[in-house]
Amino acid sequence: MKYYDKLIFEISREGRVGYSLPKSEWEGLTSSLSEEASGIAKNLLRETPAELPEVSELDVVRHYTNVSNKNFGVETGFYPLGSCTMKYNPKINEEIAHHPAFCGLHPLQSEESVQGALAIYYHTARVLSELTGLADFTLTPFAGAHGELTGLMVMRQYHLLRGDTKRTRVIVPDSAHGTNPASAAVCGLEIVEVKSTANGTVDTNDLKGLLDDTVAGIMMTNPNTLGIYETQVVEIAHLVHEAGGLLYYDGANLNPMLGASRPGDMGFDIMHINLHKTFSTPHGGGGPGSGPVGVAAHLVDCLPNPRVVFVDGKYKVKSGKMKVESNHSGGICQFGNSCGRVAAFMGNFGVVMKAYTYILSLGKDIKHVGPIATLNANYVKESLRDAYYLPVDTVCKHEFVFDGLADKSTGVTTLDIAKRLLDYGYHAPTIYFPLLFHQSIMIEPTETESKETLDDFIDIMHRVAEEALADPDMVKTAPHTTPVRRLDETTAAKNPLIKYRDLC
Ligand SMILES: *Cc1c(COP(=O)(O)O)cnc(C)c1O
Asked: Based on the domain organization, do 14 and 155 belong to the same domain?
């Protein structure tokens, strides 16, 4: 182990300092002062110095630089994590979002003093409307799943406002992202699964059997999680609307749609977008994100509070008036016609800034994003289909799914392949999702990768497939070169060791 790879406590040497402060004028005084004068309760004062690492400034710089180099990110290498759109995030987005004029703002400032920020909210919503074919957007939800919950609250509100209280079921395809049924459950709705056909799209016959006057709506992803375009979407929209339900579009991965097609034109009523996927905000590690929700004209009234409006040449933050509606079963408390409030203040402004910068800097070229993401995915798919099993053989959109190796005789699994890729400096694809196949490997190259990078990845994937045949045990015990090998991921997530050592 390299010296600077050790834990910071292990490179500590007694008496070594990296930073000196002028002597405190309070030193030695606090313990002799009364509690009122020092402001600190006597029993809280330290008698012995804290056990902190004693290191020089250079030790700290080298230690943390070495630790940071162990991270993998889009700026380290190719990141083909399906359903996550790990594309390159241009630096200009960060520069603009970090401008002191924006990042110094406070949400309690007066409207007059934040006209520029409100203009950005307003215009980002307009551009998202243009790109999706929906009438208006709220930018307050903090994540994709939060957007789903918000969108479903809008859906429920729409039915409740019409006194249609029976509609408590939401139809979700079996290929859906796990957040879809989870959000429906959090919204108090019941989930009904609709099956997929052998070519991976929604089975319209199964759907017809599920539609009745208890259905609030259907949640769909198009292209779906197999990267396949649901060509019967117009028929599905007709069927669901006919039955009185609404269509929800999970637009977390809107990437393939940019410049190609718009959910509003397909017949969707509500959708969310992940700005931290399609609109180029760095993600992974838990945030910050943003999941704007867009709605068709007949649902604008139900959007959450507050909203940014433009009246008399000024941007204003508006909320619907509180009124209590008691005509629905259980007595429902409403906020105007709005479905309520889903976030403190107005969401993650920094992420909105980055999306707006990304959209403006691409300009009309944004129409190439979807087609190039689609071309890249099909190029990788066709180049690897000799070595990996392609369960649904069709033109894909931004991503596609293999079901493990073509030759499964050696018992090398998807997990083994993912681990072996780490040895070659590649991030693993999404594995074991979607749940439709036993050995799913879901690959999404995105539009920001060059042909050379894709070719190198294709070579490595071929090499791993050859290794699986020639030396299966070596692949089954991968990774061999990473700082840690195979972890017990459940224990690492549920019971992480976050202390240097147990001091108790
Ligand atoms: C990522 C993703 C989500 C959830 O987004 P979060 O921001 O992680 O909550 C939902 N649906 C699909 C299809 C996704 O890919």
From this structure: no
